[in-house]
Design brief:
Low-confidence stretches of chain A: 282-287
Mean pLDDT of chain B: 91
Distance between the termini of chain B: 66 Å
Radius of gyration of chain B: 23 Å
CATH topology of the largest domain in chain A: Ribosomal Protein L30, Chain: A
Number of domains of chain B: 1
Distance between the termini of chain A: 68 Å
CATH architecture of chain B: Up-down Bundle
CATH class of the largest domain in chain A: Alpha Beta
CATH superfamily of the largest domain in chain A: Ribosomal protein L7/L12, C-terminal domain/Adaptor protein ClpS
CATH architecture of the largest domain in chain A: 2-Layer Sandwich
Shape of chain A: flat
CATH class of chain B: Mainly Alpha
Strand content of chain A: 5-15%
Oligomer: heterodimer
Number of strands of chain A: 5
Helix content of chain B: over 70%
Order of helices and strands of chain A: HHEHEHEHHHEEH
Number of strands of chain B: 0
Largest sheet of chain B: none
Structural class of chain A: alpha+beta
Amino acid sequence: MRHGPLVFLAAFFALSASWFGFVLTPQVELGRAAQETNAVMKAELYPMGRPGIARQGAEIYRANGCAYCHSQQVQQEGTLVSVVMTDAGTNTSALADYLNQLLPGRKYMGPSVGAGLPKVILTNATIDDAAIFAKKLKSAGAASQFRLVPIGPDIERGWGERRSVAQDFVMDATALPGSLRVGPDLSNEGNRHRDPNWQLVHLYNPATVTPKSPMPAYKFLFTRKKIGKQASPDALQLTGEFKPDAEYEIVPTPEAKALVAYLSSLRSDTPLYEAPITPAAAPAAASTNAPTK
Amino acid sequence: MNASSTTSSASDSISIAEIDQSCRVPLFQMFASAAVWLVVASVFALIASLKFHMPGLLANCAAFTYGRVHPVATNALIYGFGVQAGLGVALWVIARIGVTRVVQPWLIAVGAKLWNFGLLVGVIGILVGDNTGFENLEIPRYGVVFLFLGYLLMAIFILATLHNRRERMLGPSQWFLLAALFWFPWIYFTANYLLLSHTPVRGITQSIIAWWYSGNLNLVWFGLVGLAVIFHFIQQWMNRPLYSRHLAAFTFWTIVLFGSWSGIPASAPVPAWIPSLSTVATVLTIITAISVMMNVCKTCGHGCSETESPAAGKFIAFGTMAFGIAWILNAVGAVPGVNSVTNLTWYGVGVWQLNVFGFFAMTMIGAIYHIVPQVTGMEWPCGNSPKRHYWLALIGVILIVAPFVIGGVVEGFNWRNVNVAELEVAKKSLMFVRITTLGEVAILLGNLMLLGNLVGLSVRYYRLHFVPVYKGALAEIKPAEVKP
């Protein structure tokens, strides 16, 4: 490498390679992703577009750098399977004997096998083991279904029901997956804290709802004003030391409300083909953006 | 290639003093602004750090919320100090090795002005809430335009200076700098055009591009420029060529081939081939660190401490060490088993600080302490302060990096342990984060010394060179003013 053109070509070659790899190819692969009827079992469009106020809230989230402390990328370390028996067949006593053989340590009695169906009879199995088990059940005359259970600390913490995938970000104007978790992941915040008032009070001063929280207060998203003829219906319900002086009230600005609308719209519970889950027994609330409760 | 051989082999119509003089205008412009940005960066970093002691601090002021102060600190460090000082030092190194005068020094200074204007506009943009949301690319569109034009203006004439060299054969430092000069506009334009134009790319591909850019900036650009400077000074001070040119070429290839694919976290919600490829590349950058260490140690032998300018040499020796540690930590952090703990924790912040401040900024500060007296022909007003700055920066870097790295690992284990509540995890890592505030204070004090020294030196320079000229001119004018 004694001459300039050679060095230039070397740099050009290396940079083009990574440019093709990480700029062009993902663009070809994902750039045209759109809403799809990708959601398992429901065939509804996913992801849903956010309502206008939540979209404004996303801008507040971006402008104030919330993503420096909160990620939106749930990780999953694998998927385990629970086998649910949906039908015990007719020969229950044979089935019970067979189950006792397959699952040592459990005692199934003839007729009671068929009681309380559907019921989980095998948990934490790998997909292969579960398939073998299901086959055996079928040979004994019973019918069964699989329930997919994603695992990993993030999911156990309730930050999401499954891992985050590219499809989750399709409708975001700015993708904000974050890079550091000073606080919890927010992928599923809309399901974790459904009460918008909790979110508002938390933003105003996090210490009010989580004592000694290291999260900064966002008082600039609120106005402190004198109570007029009537107390404002939006005024925060603060208690104890956090209560403003008499005659004063703390009212959220439109920015605060938009931010809360955005936080409430964060859900990560839609089953997708690339990240399958089985919704819990009770059907999950449809992923609308309206705050429940 | 070595400094003394170039001087002797070149056709000798240009003296070193002439070369240095031709650098003076742009270098003074760039180094002074870089020093101001360095202080700005550490002030904002300190404010951001204080938020972890008092969450209610400045809570009524939107511009000073953590999520705005923090990106201002990183952008001032990267673009205000890092890229600007890097280009300045690169200019000087290129002119010196090539034994040639700087081409169009005034236009380079204009480029630097544009760059600083763009950055100022960008930083104000971040403070008023126009943060783009992409890490290391937070500066809004209206600032980026000036930054890009300023860079082009500076880089074109630095390249022209390289082209004008009298010693035709290129040495390792020049390969690194040449590649870096081309690299930045490509990645910067690609990332900003695709992310901030009127029809940006959509969804998570935005993040892939932002990660790709960050990897290329933090590893490739800072790596290439920082190592070029380290290699140059080692050769100059040791007065001998690098131990192995081939090893240096190998280092070059590993940086451009592996570094350019690094940066995408394993947890990224994207198709699995992307983070897998990036993980492999990041782990392989460990080879770069080892090859640099071998080359530097073999070149220096046992004479590392005997340098011609002690303070600058200390900074650069520290920068070299920090480079090795930072790149090794970065590669180790990408290994799948480790990554599942360290990913998305303070560990990454610590490694970033070690790479950008410990390695790159320290190297550049050392180079500035060495270059400015040469270029102006004057000693630093406070002769002891470079050494004091060195110790402050050393303590600062250790107090920032060690707690972040250790705290990051602790935090990672805590996040994985579901029995530790969220608030507890945050509180336990808070202790480590609070220690880093001390480091920020030390670094701020050191950076103030650099700025103070530069200001003192320019005042002296002004008194020495301009005041007599001005008085002389005044004296000549006076007779004409007297009306008969």
